Amino acid sequence: MSSPAVDLVRLLAVRGGTLAVAESLTGGLVAAEITSVPGASQVFRGSVTAYATELKQELLGVDAGLLAARGAVDPQVALQMAAGVRKALGADWGIATTGVAGPEPQDGKPVGTVFVAVDGPFGAESGSAAGGKVEALRLKGDRAEIRRESVRSVLALLLKELASEQTGNERAQDTERNGGF
After folding, report:
1. C-beta separation of 60 from 80 below 8 A
2. What would the pLDDT profile of 26-53 be if each residue is shown by its tens digit?
3. From CA 154, how far away is CA 32, in angstroms rounded?
4. What is the Cα 178 distance to its own chain's centre?
């Protein structure tokens, strides 16, 4: 049976890639989803559940000024969490979740505001620099539903990036075979 986590583990294993996870509102659910897949140990380096805001800075290297100015529920915080966990755990890819699952708003953001991010070697084979991507979500439902959808969304974001990376590599190989542009 296929699921985003199964597909992710298989794809990373085939490519020899590794993954690290930084979580806030999901509280370890992303890591649990990935590690429920047989063979996940081939690709999964580990995770940091930085629920407390100060841990995002201390463990993941999120900029203190950013946290003070915008709070933990912010797209740049999500990107810095993904980059920080990738670096801290020595992985090819880092993914992160931050947001408000409820029941109360946080940092002036309404319940259901979530940011998921991925950081990795985007286009590394073609010589471009590493970087990150972030998606803003406005989720509906109760706390459990928001957390489940956040897990699904961050896994889907990484799968999408891995698929686009593969397509880009295939185009680059075609260009090389055909002698240029």
Report:
1. yes
2. 999 999 999 999 999 999 999 999 999 9
3. 13
4. 35
User: What's the pLDDT band for 124 if we cut at 50, 70, 90?
Assistant: very low
Q: How many domains does the chain have?
A: 1
Residues 71 and 175: their CA atoms lie apart, in Å, by 45
Q: How far apart are CA 39 and CA 94, in angstroms?
A: 19
Q: What is the span of the domain harbouring residue 171?
A: 4-175
List pLDDT tens digits, range 56-92: 999 999 999 999 999 999 999 999 999 999 999 999 9
Residue 90 corresponds to which tokens in the numbers above? 């020595």
Q: What is the DSSP string of 117-158?
A: EEEE-TTGGGTPPPEEEEEEEE--S-HHHHHHHHHHHHHHHH
Angstrom distance (rounded) from CA 147 to CA 126:
36
CATH at 25: 3.90.950.20
The residue whose two tokens read 């953001």 is: 109
CA distance 47 to 33: 12
**Predicted TM-score (pTM) of this structure:** 0.88
Is 152 inside any structural domain? yes
Terminal-to-terminal C-alpha distance of the chain:
41
